[in-house]
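WARN no homologs supplied; continuing
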Amino acid sequence: MTPTSPSPLRVAAVQMLPIFADVPANLDAIVDRLEHAVDLGARLVVFPECAATGYGFDSVAEAMPHAETIPGPGTEKIAQTCKRLGGVHAIYGLLERDGDRLFNACVLVGPDGVVGSYRKVHLPYLGVDRWATPGDRPFAVHEVEGVRVGMHICYDGGFPEPARVMSLLGADLLVLPTNWPRHAESAAEHMPPCRAMENVVYFLAVNRIGEERGFTFIGRSSIAGPNGEFLAMADAVSAEVLLADVDPAIARRKRLIRVPGLHEVDRIADRRPGFYGPIVEPNGRA
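OK structure emitted
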């Protein structure tokens, strides 16, 4: 018997304005917007990078009081909400405390608690990333109602390797919580459809809006489909909820037959890894 494919999953990207260094208020806002997105039919709701904390901290000492462990009080509050809303899932950005180390992280939470978490691997010289510890865990894929989800954060999206690795691990949907400020307009415009197209996956990028510590954030959250077309896009200044249906059967159909027998491509099977050696050669950094 041929196994049935998982049903499409409605996902939401919540573009919002976090309050700097006010975790209780931000968690309340996440709960409120999670409820709203579920009312719109979403089963997986994704929030921006550092949605729980804000981003523009000027030192580890300033940031650490607003960080928490994973699991922690914040993830427990979101898990209780996910359970109350009928077993939905949420992904949101936060600062993670692990001993004296500080990580820019995101976490996938469901009705039973933490499903998985991710620590940002690529750190720009900007905001709290100036002080954070680089992520120390491999990229991974987690399952939400039969859909395979991979997580990375903001600057990670500027490198094609994370998306490709998670796609090779079987991801149907890649999520990118982000804090894109001015000068990142090209990333917002081109990165989601490019990463979606080159890996034949869905790609959800969710940004914040507003100003913080002298930086203006550009919004323009989006969801792109496996063919590289935008399914939904927000503007630059509004708090919005974007919705799209992720069909894993489409994301898993890697061989694209444009003209049978004449024009067929498979960007996964047609790779030539033997030629890619320089990509993994050390560059002097961990």
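The chain has six helices and 16 strands.
OK
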